[in-house]
Structures are given as structure tokens and as C-alpha cells.
Amino acid sequence: MPCPRRVVYTCSRCGTKTRLRARQVTSAGAPPVVEEKIMPPTDPREWARKVRAKTPQLLEVGKPVPKAVLSFGGCGFLVTYALGVALYLQQEKKELLANSFLLGAGSGVLPAVALACGPRAVNLERLRDFIVNNRFLVTDEEKRIETMAAGINQLLPKNAVDLVKGRLALTIGFSNKDPGYMTQAKENIYFGHHIAEWSDFDDLAQNIIAATAPNTQKPCVFRGADNVLRGTMMSLSSELDQYCRHVYIHGYAGYLYNKNQARHNIMFGRHGYIGNTHFSFPKQVLMAFAPLVGGDVRRDELLEAYDVGYNDARRYERWEEDPYYFAKADRSPSDDFNFRNLRANLFGGRRASERFEL
Fold first, then answer.
1. How far apart are alpha carbons 211 and 237 in whole angstroms?
2. Membrane-crossing residues (predicted)?
3. What is the dihedral of CA 182, 187, 190, 193, to 10 degrees?
4. Which end of the chain has fewer CB atoms surrounding its CB within 10 Å, N or C?
5. Which segments of the chain does DSSP mark as H helices, in order?
6. Do 329 and 270 touch, CB atoms closer than 8 A?
7. What is the mean pLDDT of residues 74-88?
8. How far is CA 269 from CA 1, 69, 313, 314, 328, in A?
């Protein structure tokens, strides 16, 4: 049977292209016609200008250096694991937390915002209870926006913009199905774009909703752009200046074997990592993205993830390490050592994509 004909129709008004695919006429009657929308490519620079994306500068002359960047990754409803880690930091690592920068991607923006606001403004256990009691299928965009708007109005303090100033960045992006996605800089392809300044409460609230948007068919409107989604299309969490120590916190372990999402350059052991390894991959998928399947069993498992997150953080021994130790360790190869990393560091240019093998 010959291949179906393909006809591309371009609208004279808006320039939108539609591919018409017509199959052969059969004796049963007229052929079905399948319409497939081809979105016009997004210009990444224009898009970044609209949303006013700017990566925060962590290392500046005359300013104290953050002890760490605490990067919370996207994990759907398994954000309860990350909330357990956040509770430990809030209770037992107050000095580290006070001198760290917080970075959120996907649902990881929730613990990042909560920690940046502080324990007096946002109660982590109230946030956890709201999440496990208001579960939904992550692709149900209407229910997601309704639930998140209710949670923001109920739990986020009105002075949140003042509380998080200079301490927080949220990650956004646009669809990786967009023809313009791969024309971005390499660091934006992998780690999205960063928003670190907000004008008012509503601006921050809309950023939280857009930064957690998972459905590529139903993007969010944020500032001047109408195609904003989470910034975790090709990695689970984001990163900033790699000369500052990062601790990556992943409530969801990633794809099977994690091959396609192991994007972070955990080079020479400088950075830290806490990952959820307490549930099998199929169970993690259910818990993170379809928490209604299984009824109250999923709720109990999400609460269990909260507990194991706290215990993992308590057992973790690498929250703080001596910079002098890194200076010596950086001259020794590690398990992740390869020639491309060495070449990028010795002979790379000034841009992040040249200095670090992304």
C-alpha cells in the first residue's frame, strides 16, 4: 500500500501551518483526513525577553558566596519526598539553609518557595497535607490549575515576594515539541530559563503555576508569553553557576535506568545528590503522575515518601564540605571522569556550554 499523501496548508493570516494527511480512497467510502497542527517555531531570545528570564549571579566581588545551591527537581506528587528533605533542612540545618540559594524546577518549586519564605510564613506539614488530600491526574490541566490556585491563595503569604527576594529562582521553559526548542543555548535546552525577580504576589503565583505545567498540549500564559511550561523537559532539576556547590534533590528517580535525564555534570565529586530510591520505578510513576490510581493506598505511600525523604536527608553526610577539600579533589579523577569533561575545563571558552560538558 503506497504512503499517504501529505499536503501542508499555510494560513495567510497567522502563518500557522497545518499538515493534511489523506489516506487512499477505499470501497468503504471517503478517506479519513487527519489534521496535525504544526506550531510556528518560537524564537528563544524573543521568548526570554517576554518572560524577562535572567539567571541570577551567585558569585560577585564583595558579596558572600552561597554555601550551596539547593536544587529541587521536578517529581510530580512525589514532591512529598522533597518536602521531607526540606523539613530536615529547616529543623537541623538552619545555618546552611540561611546561607544557601534555592532553585526549583517542576513541582520542586513548592519546597523551594516554602523554604525561601521561612517556617513562620509557610508550614511544610500543612503544605504536605494539602498536596496528599488534593490529588489529581497531572495531565488534567483544569483540575491542576484549580487546585494549585486554591493552594497558593491558602498557603502562600501575601508578602512572599519580599521574603524570597535574592534567595530563590524558579525554572520555566517551553515545549520541546516546538521547532524552536533545539535552537536555544545548550544550557537552556537542558536546564530551562530562570526567573528570580517578581513584581507582586500575582506575578509569583502565576510563575509557580507555569513552572509546574506538565501538559505540552495546554501551556500556560506567563508575563508576555502564552506557551510557558515547566523548564524540566530534558532534565529533572536545574542548575546555576557550576563553580558554586549544588545539592540536587530528586523526589522522582527519573526514567527507567535514568539514562536520558542524567544531565548534571556531577564533576569530580564537587556537587551533592539526594535521590528517592525507596520505591520501584513503576510505583514511582504511579505515585508521581497518577496518584488517584489505587485510592488511599497512594496517599499513604506519599506520606511514607515524606518520612523517607526526611530520613535520607538525616543520613546524608555531604551537606557541607570544605572548599579546600574540593580544591585538592578537583585534581583527581573520579568515577564520572572522562576526557570530554577534562577537555571542556582545560580548553573551553567563557560560556557555560563550553566550560562544562552538558
1. 12
2. 68-89, 96-116
3. -90
4. N
5. 44-51, 79-92, 94-98, 109-117, 124-133, 141-155, 160-164, 186-191, 201-211, 281-289, 296-315, 323-329, 339-347, 352-355
6. yes
7. 96
8. 56, 15, 18, 20, 11
DSSP 63: S
| pTM summary value | 0.81
Residue 200 backbone phi and psi in degrees, to 5 = -160, -175
Q: How many residues does the chain have?
A: 358
- Whether the CB-CB separation of 227 and 178 falls below 8 Å is answered with yes
Kindly report, residue by residue over 137-175, the tens digit of the pLDDT.
998 999 999 999 999 999 999 999 999 999 999 999 999
For residue range 230-278, what is the model confidence (pLDDT) as tens digits?
A: 988 888 889 998 888 899 999 987 655 555 555 565 544 578 889 898 9
Are 245 and 271 a contacting pair, CB within 8 Å?
Answer: yes
Specify the 3-state DSSP secondary structure of 30. Answer: coil
Structure confidence by residue, pLDDT tens digits, 24-72? 444 455 555 444 456 688 999 999 999 999 999 998 888 888 999 999 9
Q: Name residue, grid cell 535552537.
A: 183
Distances from the Cα of 60 to the Cα of 197, 244, 318, angstroms: 18, 12, 25
* β-bridge mates for residue 193, sequence order: 172
Gap between the Cα atoms of 195 and 51, Å rounded: 8
As a whole number of angstroms, the distance between CA 242 and CA 234 comes to 18
- The rounded distance, in Å, linking the Cα atoms of 111 and 84 is 9
